[in-house]
Amino acid sequence: MKLLAKKLFRALALFLVPFVASIFIRLIYLTNKKKFHVPKIVGDEPAIFACWHGELLMLPYLYFYYRKTPHAKVLISSHFDGMLISKTIKYFGLDTISGSTNRNATRVLMQGIRTLKDGYDIGITPDGPKGPRHEVADGVVIMAQKTGAKVVLVRIIPTKYWQLRSWDRFIIPKPFGTLNYYTTAPLDLASLEMQEARDLIKKELEKHEL
Asked: 183, 80 in Cβ contact below 8 A?
């Protein structure tokens, strides 16, 4: 009975939560002022958009700033919470790659590389899906170097927010504040060693803090 109840609960959550979450995200965006501290363009070539896991909630709107027609896949954990996120972002026209660069790493990296070569942008959290928080994993660097794709680093910093006690200290903006979007110019990681590239990503992401 417990197993059946768990399955029913998850099925109901997968049906209801993504829709409600998508409405909530839209309301948060509409009720906040927006400031984009960003380059005007990032180029037309497929790119990797990367932000910390705890700031991904409002990432779709940064993507729409650069791409009027969404053509991207986001790397999302295959766990249940990842399934909820995956179904939520579909309401914003974004597709997903299921998995992580910690589990099933080779398969996920191959999918990501193929996706970029097929002309899609990639969304990724360098410290996801389970951390350590604000530590850059190898996956983003490998995908960039294997495909030649540039990396656009993103920070999303609200003036008013709730912060969860999860491993990533997940940020939920409150209404009636300001959403500050920061991005780097596209970074070319092709000539860097792995540790150099990871250090550069972390350094650039840490230029703007809550």
From this structure: no
Q: How far apart are CA 127 and CA 105, in angstroms?
A: 14
Direct distance between the N- and C-terminal alpha carbons of the chain, in angstroms, rounded to an integer: 45
**Could you check whether the bond before residue 158 is cis, i.e. omega within 30 degrees of 0?**
no
Q: How high is the mean pLDDT of the chain? A: 92
Whole-angstrom distance, CA of residue 87 vs CA of residue 80: 11
Q: Provide the 10 A C-beta neighbour count for residue 124.
A: 26
Q: What share of the chain is helix, strand, coil (3-state, %, to 5)?
A: 40, 20, 35
Classify each residue of 154-189 as buried b or exposed e, where b means 16 or more C-beta atoms within 10 Å of its C-beta. Answer: bbbbbeebeeeeeebebbebeeeeebbbbbbebbeb
Whether the pLDDT of residue 100 is over 80: the answer is no
Closest CA to 169 of 177, 157, 154, 153: 157
Structure tokens at 131: 């951390």
3-state secondary structure of 10: helix
**pLDDT (tens digit per residue) in 12-62:** 888 899 999 999 999 999 999 999 999 999 999 999 999 999 999 999 999
Nearest to 64 by CA among 176, 179, 189: 179
Residue ranges and CATH numbers for the domains of the chain are: 2-205 (3.40.1010.10)
